[in-house]
Write a structure and sequence with these properties.
This protein is α/β, with parallel strands linked by helices. Helix content is about 25%, strand content about 20%.
Length: about 160
């Protein structure tokens, strides 16, 4: 499917558009380059455009994938839709699993943090590393894996291991 956005400056955003169809809607994403996967998850009210310079710079060495959440950027903007972080997180999870992305360097920004980090908690085997920018994560104190990590991080010997 080809959608045209006449207002979009192709010199600034020269990427080929791709669409992932989910729950009757099209989620836009860019997929540029080859190599280890860098997956960019934007915040609110932004879109993949925020990562354009990084994608241009790194796509010669990495596979750079940047999504536009439903309701943002070049994705569909339905009036009747669950725009909660939980639903965006489920959409991201389905996208990653269907595309069979592995060894992901997950880059989350702002509101993209709780959306993307939820996936990282649920599927740590698919995450190679995290880059967290100006973000947060909802409380996970009751999650068994979080309890393990918290115990390790509270260990007084941890600083001496570096």
């Amino acid at each position: 499917m080809k959608k045209t956005f006449h207002w979009l400056d192709k010199a600034e955003y020269p990427f080929q558009s791709h669409y992932y169809h989910i729950n009757g809607h099209d989620m836009h994403y860019v997929d540029e380059g080859k190599g280890p996967v860098l997956l960019y998850v934007h915040g609110t009210p932004s879109w993949s455009f925020d990562f354009r310079h990084v994608i241009k710079s790194l796509s010669s060495q990495f596979r750079c994938i940047a999504i536009d959440h439903i309701g943002f950027g070049l994705s569909d903007k339905p009036k009747e839709y669950d725009y909660s972080t939980q639903n965006h997180s489920k959409t991201l999870e389905k996208f990653i699993l269907e595309k069979d992305l592995k060894d992901i360097s997950l880059v989350v920004h702002d509101f993209g943090g709780p959306i993307g980090l939820n996936f990282a908690i649920q599927h740590p085997d698919r995450i190679k590393q995290l880059v967290i920018m100006n973000s947060w994560l909802w409380s996970a104190e009751h999650e068994p894996d979080f309890k393990k990590i918290r115990k390790i991080l509270k260990n007084p010997l941890l600083p001496f291991l570096y």
